[in-house]
């Protein structure tokens, strides 16, 4: 595709996933890292450089044989890159890497640009007096962090109170030799992250906001989108975009922006990664263009079409699970995890070609689905926390509810139709007037539980369908059930004559058959199988009438009446 | 993942795509082919063998260093594989390769197993007398084919009539040296193909039936699913499954089954490929597990979960376009094709790392969408046949129709709501009584055109919604429009009281606002953006009422009436 050669500084799993994209696009790449590093395993170019990204000579060699250089790791020898005299473009720029690499400078930059971060101050020396002074400034607990080279929680320490200072000084004496800074404690409820792409023209694009869950300071799972209100998701994206927009010119490529979501609803930027990021692995399966492809497209000036960061039409949720090496006596668990993953439709396994060592990131698993509940059920199965492979037992797509068990004879016709079309459904009693709280809960939670259509039957005043419709964004189908007076017209009017703003899809009186058929047609919007089945169903109906016509034509009306309409 | 080493005979693009999967699953592989062949480019193992799959010594070397051997090409030296004395498993088995490799033996096997194929007879010698005799047996035109080594139309010749025989003998004298057979002409209207997976336990699974379109005997595009009736698709899958089930034991892996769909509606098997196949490339983007991953899983006995051959939930259509090398003076066209592809969301480019030569398969492009029309529009753009990038101009998802322009004041409210939610829609007049043929066409074609929901407004007898619902599998929302008499109750009853089997989702009289909101909720089943927007919309509605309440509480009822309800 591109006549230009891309040099990648670092050959770990992020480099490997960049190479996977480069391979598909015939993009020429050169990797600088140790021999047989994960990225090199999947590219047989003779040009790769065996060496280190902290070695000036190796970086120089790389710059001499490529047109564009980029990073899969920021812990590089910046000085030697500065002295780069070749014409090689470096994206993101050296100034950006320098700014981000030192977390204190990064924080100060963000503060200067009006971006909310936790208060951060330098720590001049690692002794009791300084730490006490820091604690009196920031309050306890506070965080101590090394300014450079930290990752996966390494280089971060919590200073709980004045008493814990002695302990810290004793346990980690080698912190003395490092540049440190202190950060005010951020009382977060969730950790969020947003991948941002910045193009050569300085346009920024953000991917959906995700939620990262850490165990022992290592990212365990990543939920996309984050399980927070949509407004919070939007605010996080805007903040992340603003953050990346604040970086120096030529900050081209993808960036991970980690955020804290505080108890009081505020968002703070935690830190920036100037490269693809673990929290963006979900994009491989869930988004139009993955973070890795977006990075290569950005640094090569290739097209970034409208909406490329969106989740793929109709994938609504994704959970990414990191695969960490197990303890030496538990290698069987790794194998079981892989097997469970391969047994789960919608789950994709990405291994990095690394030797297994305890807690080492060996790969990741992307689980896509149409609700977070579906993804979570698959995750449970993959982790061996549920023996039930939920892929065979589908969660209900239609919820059938009725105001009273006296409606069941009518509503059971809907159940039969859904069984015929193989639509997973649930059926229960929810009364607007006798169980208002239950109705509220049902309507409120249905969408979160993965329900896609609600069928509600009710007679008389028949408030159930309309009240449920008022509390869910899902389509609600109303079945007017005929009562002992007024022939069902009361229920029909009550169900169909909804005010502007809240619709109920009404069907004929007592016709729950049609309610279910309508539900199947609605589900057909996202599942072509239902459309195909609906076509066959309609053909069968047609055939039945044609057969009756043939008999009537053959037998004449009198005999027909005699035989079939007794 | 697997401790076993897989040997792949052949390192072309099919091998490359197998390696891409193997890389992701940490499956150890060894490739036998020329140095730097496409597959080798993306795997730096030092174990690969530089050599030829027609060379006995090279095949022996391969068998000695791997546990399972498989094929990405069937034109191998079968004799040397037969003499393989190592413990290496070969999937599919040598007997299968031998049977398939000689097309005449393959045909005879299929006939013996009761599988419909074009009549095929040996041609003893390449001379006028034999060809005349063959023509008198099979009729003209008939096909002449080489029994082995044919691909992409090479080795196939049409014998039009007695006169064309001399021409053929003169043009292709070297056919004399080849084993030939003749095949009765199959008057096909379309070429179909089905990928079939056979597991180690001899279970067979088929992927959706596709349609291949050839230009100059080379596959140009592949449409998934095939643009034929669903019944034909099912018949084709069953026939393909039966075909693969008929093969000898240990026929493990994926197989491509090419079929002819004849003018009279019959299906004939054309030929089998004992490996991944060009007609299965669409599975990479459109199916739960791709043909390449399925092949590796099958030959390694890894899980093949229920439904793994299905199209991914909610992807309904895919077009695969082969990228062929252009003439030397038209290399710019290749670049433009790539750029257009990268500019098209839902289109993925797979290049094979091959040098460009005219008509050489350099890669392929998978285009996914929610209707064939959407995919075709994207294809046009990619091929430069349309300057309009349809990704920015979405095809309508909702069709608004009404019986008369007198309904427009009511129905225009629906348009406004759809605009507010950014739903692409179309609006027109279709009268059940005055334009019955137009109504039939509209209802019949709507689904094919990519419409997902129809909103139909009508007054008086109000037949339009129900009649349209009778001729489409899509959900139809009916808006009863109030006429000059009966206050709209006539329309309401006519629309809502549909017979069992054909539902219309009725809303309140004149309330096309709610019809549009209902449509948005239905579309939310497949697009989470609409659900999120619906939630915000409901919050805004709530806020508006709360603000009014606050004013009423503050001003008192008299002033409120005076100020706001004049």
Topology:
The structure is a homodimer of 566-residue chains.
Chain A: E1 5-9, H1 13-24, E2 28-33, H2 38-41, E3 49-50, H3 56-65, E4 68-71, H4 78-82, E5 89-90, H5 94-101, H6 103-112, E6 120-123, H7 128-138, E7 142-146, E8 156-159, H8 162-171, E9 180-184, E10 188-198, E11 204-206, E12 210-215, E13 218-224, H9 230-245, E14 253-262, E15 267-273, H10 283-286, H11 291-300, E16 317-324, H12 331-342, E17 347-351, E18 361-369, H13 372-382, E19 398-402, H14 408-420, E20 425-429, H15 436-445, E21 453-459, H16 464-469, E22 476-481, H17 489-496, E23 505-506, H18 512-523, H19 528-555, H20 557-564
Parallel strand pairs in A: 1-2, 1-4, 2-3, 4-5, 19-20, 19-21, 21-22, 22-23
Antiparallel strand pairs in A: 6-9, 7-8, 7-9, 10-11, 10-12, 10-14, 12-13, 13-16, 14-15, 16-18, 17-18
Helix pairs in contact in A: 1-11, 7-8, 14-18, 19-20
Structural descriptors:
elongated, Dna Ligase, domain 1, alpha/beta, D-amino Acid Aminotransferase, Chain A, domain 1, nine-stranded antiparallel sheet, 37% helix, Rossmann fold, 23% strand, five-stranded parallel sheet, homodimer
Structure description:
The structure is a homodimer of 566-residue chains. The first copy, chain A, is built from 20 helices and 23 strands. By secondary structure, chain A is of the alpha/beta class. The first copy, chain A, has 5 domains: 5-90, Rossmann fold; 119-184, Dna Ligase, domain 1, CATH 3.30.1490; 188-382, ATP-grasp fold, B domain (D-amino Acid Aminotransferase, Chain A, domain 1, 2-Layer Sandwich), CATH 3.30.470.20; 398-524, Rossmann fold, CATH 3.40.50; 531-565. In chain A, strands 10, 11, 12, 13, 14, 15, 16, 17 and 18 form a 9-stranded antiparallel beta sheet that branches. A 5-stranded parallel beta sheet of chain A has the order 3-2-1-4-5, sandwiched between helices. In chain A, strand 2 (28-33), helix 2 and strand 3 form a beta-alpha-beta unit. In chain A, helix 7 (128-138) crosses helix 8, helix 14 (408-420) runs parallel beside helix 18 and helix 19 packs across helix 20. The model of chain A has no long low-confidence stretch (mean pLDDT 92). At the A-B interface, helix 1, helix 12, strand 17, strand 23 and helix 18 of A face helix 1, helix 12, strand 17, strand 23 and helix 18 of B.
């Amino acid at each position: 595709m591109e006549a230009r050669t891309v040099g990648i500084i670092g050959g770990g799993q992020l480099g490997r996933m960049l190479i996977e994209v480069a391979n598909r696009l015939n993009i020429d790449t050169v990797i600088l890292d140790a021999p047989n590093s994960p990225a090199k395993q999947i590219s047989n170019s003779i040009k790769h450089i065996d060496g280190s990204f902290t070695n000036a000579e190796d970086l120089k060699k790389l710059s001499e044989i490529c047109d564009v250089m980029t990073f899969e790791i920021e812990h590089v020898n910046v000085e030697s890159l500065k002295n780069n005299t070749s014409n090689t473009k470096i994206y993101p720029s050296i100034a950006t890497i320098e700014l981000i690499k030192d977390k204190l400078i990064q924080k100060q930059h963000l503060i200067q640009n009006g971006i909310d971060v936790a208060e951060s101050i330098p720590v001049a020396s690692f002794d009791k007096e300084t730490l006490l002074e820091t604690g009196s400034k920031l309050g306890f607990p506070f965080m101590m962090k090394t300014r450079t080279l930290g990752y996966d929680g390494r280089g971060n320490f919590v200073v709980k109170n004045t008493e814990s200072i002695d302990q810290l000084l004793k346990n980690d004496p080698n912190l003395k030799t490092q540049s440190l800074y202190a950060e005010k404690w951020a009382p977060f409820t969730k950790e969020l992250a947003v991948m941002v792409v910045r193009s050569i023209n300085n346009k920024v694009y953000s991917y959906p906001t995700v939620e990262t869950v850490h165990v022992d300071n290592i990212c365990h799972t990543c939920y996309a989108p984050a399980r927070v209100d949509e407004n919070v998701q939007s605010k996080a994206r805007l903040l992340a975009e603003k953050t990346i927009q604040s970086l120096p010119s030529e900050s081209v490529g993808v960036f991970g922006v980690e955020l804290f979501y505080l108890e009081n609803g505020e968002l703070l930027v935690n830190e920036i990664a100037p490269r693809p990021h673990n929290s963006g692995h979900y994009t491989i399966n869930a988004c139009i263009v993955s973070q890795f492809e977006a990075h290569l497209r950005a640094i090569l000036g290739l097209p970034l079409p409208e909406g490329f960061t969106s989740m793929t039409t109709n994938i609504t949720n994704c959970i990414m699970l990191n695969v960490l090496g197990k303890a030496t006596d538990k290698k069987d668990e790794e194998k079981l995890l892989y097997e469970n993953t391969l047994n789960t439709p919608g789950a994709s396994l990405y291994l990095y070609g690394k030797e297994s060592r305890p807690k080492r990131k060996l790969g990741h698993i992307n689980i896509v689905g149409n609700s977070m509940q579906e993804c979570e059920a698959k995750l449970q199965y993959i982790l061996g926390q549920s023996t039930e492979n939920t892929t065979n037992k589908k969660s209900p797509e239609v919820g059938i509810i009725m105001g009273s068990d006296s409606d069941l004879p009518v509503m059971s016709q809907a159940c039969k139709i859904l069984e015929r079309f193989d639509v997973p459904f649930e059926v229960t009693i929810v009364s607007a007037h006798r169980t208002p709280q239950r109705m509220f809960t049902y309507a409120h939670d249905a969408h979160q539980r993965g329900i896609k259509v609600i069928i509600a039957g009710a007679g008389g005043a028949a408030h159930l369908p309309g009240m449920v419709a008022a509390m869910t964004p899902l389509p609600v189908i109303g079945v007017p059930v005929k009562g002992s007076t007024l022939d069902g017209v009361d229920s029909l009017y009550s169900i169909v004559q909804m005010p502007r703003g809240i619709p109920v899809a009404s069907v004929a009186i007592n016709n729950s058959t049609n309610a279910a058929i309508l539900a199947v047609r609605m589900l057909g919007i996202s599942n072509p199988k239902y459309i195909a089945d609906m076509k066959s169903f309609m053909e069968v109906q047609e055939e039945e009438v044609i057969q009756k016509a043939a008999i009537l034509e053959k037998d004449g009306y009198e005999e027909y009446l005699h035989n079939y309409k007794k």
